Amino acid sequence: MTDLDELSLSELFDLHARIQREFARRGVSRTSGAIQGEVGESLALAVYGGTLPAPGTKAYDLVDGQGRLIQVKTRTLPKGDQRIFQFHSLDFDIAVCIRFDRDSNELEWAREFDTSELRSLVTPHAQGPRLPMGRAHANGRDVTSTFRAAYDALLGR
Question: What is the pTM assigned to this prediction?
Answer without folding.
Answer: 0.85
